[in-house]
Each structure stands twice: as structure tokens, then as C-alpha cells.
Amino acid sequence: MIPRYTRPIMAKLWSPEEKLRAWCLVEFYACEAWYKLGKVPKEDYQIIKERLKPYMQEGGFKEENLKRIEEIEKETKHDVIAFLTHLAEIIGPSARYLHLGMTSSDMLDTAMAWLMKRAMEIIIEDLKRIKEILKDRAYEFKDILMIGRTHGIHAEPITFGFKLALWYEEMKRNEKRLENALENISYGKISGAVGTFAHVPPEIEAYVCEKLGLKPDPVTNQIIQRDRYAEYMASLAILGTTVEKIATEIRHLQRTEVLEAEEYFSPGQKGSSAMPHKRNPILSENLCGLARLLRGYLIPALENVALWHERDISHSSVERVIIPDATTVADFMLVRLEGLLKKLMVYPERMEKNFNLLRGLIFSQQIMLALTEKGMTREEAYKIVQEIAMKVWQDETLNFKDLVLQDKRILKVLSQQEIEKVFDVKYYLKNIDKIFERVFSD
């Protein structure tokens, strides 16, 4: 179930043809391992190798193969048996040496691990590109002043580059989570019906895994345990939530009343079928919606961890949907975010205008601290500063700094020069360089 917005690289990975190729590789390498142990006659091994070689190449399985397997499955009601039956048609009598001692999940889970590993590698590469863009743009706007907001209300000064550095640091954590998930999903199993290697020795598993760039799972039952899958899906869900966080911020910054940043609006683009003036943050809104979808795939993955005894099949139908879809959605989101960040339009003049909207109120904490440093109690200092601040909130003609300079209670404690120093914005940004050094030292 591949969404229509799939990129070609991910669409090919999760195509039915590539799935069959993965199955074929597992079966062949297991057969080859048996041959090296002397259990498969050389002439049969050579036939199997020659006849399967085209199908182990990318694009080897064709539409006619899919149709034939579907035709067989209508009778067998078992996709793996249908696949093996079709391979027997291709190979002939030597096919009896395929699937020796194996259960279906040996092939399915090892092939899925190989596909999930490749999908995660694509996503990690996407994330690395976004990190580079965030780093470049963070330094571009490192000293561009803007107001910080808490609860949506003006708080204290920051820079736009500081905001981008925050996103970069979070993407670093996402990268670690993805790499951990990649490590823990990169395990195969060829251990038989309940995982005891009763009919297939561990050497077969080790050989197949090495060939596919996987590691043998230390212990399994009939399947690779689904906590590995759950971690994989959780890492994607958290990644999607970070993307949503960034997109939500961009949506707020593009609001007409704010308009400090804006998605690129290309020539000929239309914002509304009804209102020709509209320039909407459609990319960011799209990403927020997809993040909800991506998180939705996590719950089924968590519920797949608890299966009956050595395994039931309740997880199978779920994974056929959520794994291709989740990796596809994550890949698409990162590519879309990459383009959004590259072309993001930033308006420092508007940031400066908004910065001054509250006519100096954002310096209230610094005045309070200056008073307490001079010996005034915090409670008294807070009361005085808040009293002045509320007057400025209620009367747009008033300026906070002017009222501070006129207040006799404050002038008894602070000189005019000390008050002027409080309103120097550089004070708030004195550690931006240190923060950048900590974030980007890698």
C-alpha cells in the first residue's frame, strides 16, 4: 500500500518486485550455505545459482512473475508456498534444496530486515541533508534579533539563528535515535519453526546474514521479536513530531499579524480559489497532517510486540501496511521539509518591528533583577515593575523605559546610567556564540 506521493527510490524499495527479490536472496544464500556445508550437490547448486541469478538482480522479477505467484496463491492460500512453487517452476527438480529446514518467517523476517535497513538508510541520509541546511541557515541568521515568545506572548530577545540551532540540535537527537533503530533492526534469523535450530544449523543463519549485511539475532522463536520493529517505528514517529514542531512554528511565523518568516511563494502559485490575495503555509500544514499519520503507525507496531506463545500471525497483516507506509511518509516529509527550509523567506525588518510592539516591556525581568541586586526584596521589586508594566499594557501611548526613568522608587536604587544599561539588547545575546559552539562543535 504505497502512497501516491512516494519518491521513486522508496517506491522501488517497497515494490512487489523488490520484495520478491529480497525473498529470493534469502532463499539462495541459505541454499548456498547448505552447499558450502556439503548438503547440496554441486550440480544442483549450479543449476539453482544459474537460474536464480537474473532474479537476484534489481528488477529481475517481472509482472508475469507476480501474476503467476498470485495465481498459485489462489489455490495454496499461502504466499510463501506460492513463491517457492514458482521458483520450483523456474529451477526444476533442484529446487528441492531450497528452504531446507526453514520456516516461512525465516525468509520473511530476514528479507524484511534487509528492506527496513535500506529504508532507514535512505531516511538517515535525508536527515543529514536537513541538518546541513539548518546549520547553514542558523549561521546566516545567528545575529538577527527577534522576540522570543512563551505562551504565544512576547517574552525576551532571541535571534532567529538561535531558533534554527534549537531545531538542529533536536535533529541530532533524531539522528541518534534513527541510527539506534537501524542497528537494532539489522538482524536476521534462519533458526527454524520455533527458533531452536532443530533442522537448520546456526552456520546457515550466520552466512545468510553476512551476505545481506545483517547480524544473526542471538535468540528468536519463530520470528524476530517485534520490540525491534516497535523501536524502529517509534524513532520515525518522534522524527515526524520534530518535523511537525518546525512546521508549526513556521505556520505561526507566517500569520499575517506576525509575518516574520514565510514559505516561498512561486510565480503563478495560487493560495485560494476564492481569495486571490492569499499566501498560505500549505507545505507546513501538509507536514503537520502527515506527522499525525506517521504517529498513527506506532500504536499497531507496539501492539504487535505481544504475540501468542512462539508466534501468531496477527502482526503480519499490520506490518504489510505500516512499514512501507511509515518509511515512505517519513522520507517524503523530510524531502518536503528540506525544500521548505532551503527557500524559507525570512523578514528581519518585520522581526524588528514586532520586537518593539510592547514598547520596552520585554526588559521587565532585567529591571527587576537589577533592583534585587541593589538590595530590594524580590517581592517588592516584582510589585513595582509589574505595576509599571500593567500601565504600558493598558495605554498604547506609554513607553516602559520612560516610566521606569520617572519612577522615584526605582531612581532611589538605580542610576539613569544603570537603567540605560538594562535596556541594552546585547545583554540578552551575549552567550549566543557559546551556544552555537556547543551545538555545532561536531
Number of domains: 3
Largest sheet: 2 strands, antiparallel
N/C terminus separation: 39 Å
* Helical percentage: 55-70%
Q: CATH homologous superfamily of the largest domain - what is it?
A: Fumarase/aspartase (Central domain)
Strand content: under 5%
Structural class: mainly alpha
Please provide the ordered H/E string of secondary-structure elements.
Answer: HHHHHHEEHEHEHEHHHEHHHHHHH
CATH class type of the largest domain: Mainly Alpha
Query: How many H/I helices?
Result: 19
Instruction: Report Rg.
Output: 31 Å
Strand order of the largest sheet: 1-2
Please tell me what the overall shape is.
Answer: elongated
Low-confidence stretches: none
CATH topology of the largest domain: Fumarase C, Chain A, domain 2
**Mean pLDDT level:** 95
Overall description:
The protein has helices at residues 8-13, 16-36, 42-52, 63-76, 79-91, 104-140, 160-185, 202-211, 227-254, 282-296, 298-303, 314-343, 348-355, 364-373, 378-394, 400-406, 408-411, 416-422, 432-440; strands at 145-150, 153-159, 187-188, 215-216, 261-262, 345-346. It is built from 19 helices and six strands. The mean pLDDT is 95. It is 63% helix and 5% strand. Strands 1-2 form a two-stranded antiparallel ribbon. The protein has a two-stranded parallel ribbon with strand order 3-4. The radius of gyration is 31 Å and the shape is elongated. β1 and β2 form a beta hairpin. α2 crosses α8 (202-211) and α6 runs antiparallel to α7 (160-185). The protein is mainly alpha-helical. It has three domains: 1-100, Fumarase C, Chain B, domain 1 (Orthogonal Bundle); 101-264 and 273-356, Fumarase C, Chain A, domain 2 (Up-down Bundle), CATH 1.20.200; 361-422, Orthogonal Bundle (Ribonucleotide Reductase Protein R1, domain 1), CATH 1.10.40.
